[in-house]
Write a structure and sequence with these properties.
By secondary structure, this protein is an alpha/beta fold. Strands 5, 6, 7, 8, 9, 10, 11, 12, 13 and 14 form a ten-stranded mixed beta sheet that branches. It has a two-stranded antiparallel ribbon with strand order 1-2. A two-stranded antiparallel ribbon has the order 3-4. Helix 4 packs antiparallel against helix 9 and helix 5 packs antiparallel against helix 12. The two termini are about 40 Å apart. About 35% of the residues are buried.
Length: about 350
């Protein structure tokens, strides 16, 4: 079945009651400021946004009046730069988008499936609960292009596996680090991983590590540096596998979470961690390498992680599951995955037993 539509949800800023106007959208000025930041001048930003030079200046002047502060700084022979206020505004928008993207993607997927079920010839669909990752994001795009029914909910790995146990989903996504911390993380999943009932589908290998400012000005080299008083840390949310891994690494280094400044400050996605650091609100955090590169941050490898989908053995040979596996093993998806920094595409889509995955 080919979808007749594809739902998407996006965050939008608005200013209520600005100068006696109601619900003034910030979308136009945020897009323009982002383009100016990228191109370094208004002319290039106008081309990127499809705006006339006069209209662009009108947008900028209007919001400078509303905010009561300049948005641009123009210097001879140095081009146009964003003011500090404009930079903060833009970074706030990037943090919000990074933080909300998985939630909105899950909601859009849920609404899509609800509406599709009401249409004629609605096809069977699969339900995926998974921890957030770029491999999953890319897979969902390819699933959509192929017209497959796959409903996504982003959950922590433990929540996803518990949902699979209670038959609330058909696939549960989770990651396990290679090496010395594999057994620690795997033990947290053990209550839901019955080797007699489940198979695993291997999705990818990815690099996980510390994000730091370009050039690493704080000279952060490893997990022990998180205890330094001059280092501000941003953590992943409570219940996430990454947070569990960070705690295990700190314990292995003989450190307490109380020694880490910012340990209780948390974000829900790798991109939100990167945006938090890139905007100067923290010095370091842990996430997947792709997010660090997208925000221009340096990356310090801590672990290689394998990402799996757990599936009931009885469901492996259903038509819907076979179609999904065809997408995962297809050259288009693997080609896109291969372009993600820090991802390895060897054995993508391979089905294996738990004993094969974890001898």
């Amino acid at each position: 079945m080919t979808y007749k539509f594809q739902l998407s949800l996006r965050p939008q800023w608005s200013l209520d009651g600005a100068q006696d106007e109601q619900d003034v959208s910030l979308g136009s000025v945020l897009s323009l400021l982002s383009a100016i930041d990228t191109t370094g001048h208004i002319a290039g930003a106008c081309r990127a946004c499809g705006l006339s030079y006069r209209h662009a200046w009108g947008v900028l002047r209007r919001f400078e009046t509303i905010f009561g502060t300049p948005l641009l700084i123009t210097r001879r022979r140095q081009g146009t730069q964003l003011s500090e206020f404009a930079q903060r505004l833009l970074w706030a928008n990037r943090r919000i988008e990074a933080r909300l993207a998985p939630t909105l993607e899950s909601m859009a997927s849920e609404l899509q499936e609800e509406l599709e079920r009401l249409l004629p010839r609605a096809a069977p669909h699969l339900r995926l609960h998974a921890s957030h990752g770029f491999a999953v994001e890319a897979m969902m795009r390819h699933v959509s292009r192929n017209g497959l029914g796959l409903e996504l909910r982003y959950r922590t790995a433990a929540e996803a596996l518990a949902a699979l146990e209670h038959r609330e989903c058909d696939l549960a996504g989770f990651q396990v680090p290679c090496g010395e911390f594999e057994s620690v993380i795997l033990e947290a999943y053990r209550p839901w991983l019955d080797a007699d009932e489940y198979m695993l589908v291997y999705l990818s290998m990815r690099n996980t590590g510390l994000f730091v400012q370009p050039g690493n000005p704080k000279r952060i080299n490893g997990i022990a540096d998180l205890a330094r008083p001059d280092v501000r840390f941003v953590n992943r949310q409570i219940g996430s596998s990454t947070r569990h891994l960070i705690k295990a690494m700190l314990e292995r280094a003989g450190l307490s979470t109380n020694q880490v400044q910012g340990y209780e400050t948390s974000e829900f996605t790798h991109m939100a961690i990167a945006a938090h650091i890139a905007s100067g609100m923290a010095d370091t955090g842990v996430g997947v390498e792709t997010a660090a590169r997208r925000f221009g941050l340096d990356f310090i490898l801590l672990a290689r992680e394998r990402y799996f989908f757990a599936v009931r053995k009885a469901d492996m040979d259903t038509p819907a599951m076979r179609e999904l596996l065809d997408v995962i093993r297809g050259p288009e998806y693997i080609g896109e995955l291969d372009l993600l920094p820090g991802y390895d595409v060897v054995d993508v889509g391979r089905a294996m037993t738990l004993k094969e995955a974890f001898p």
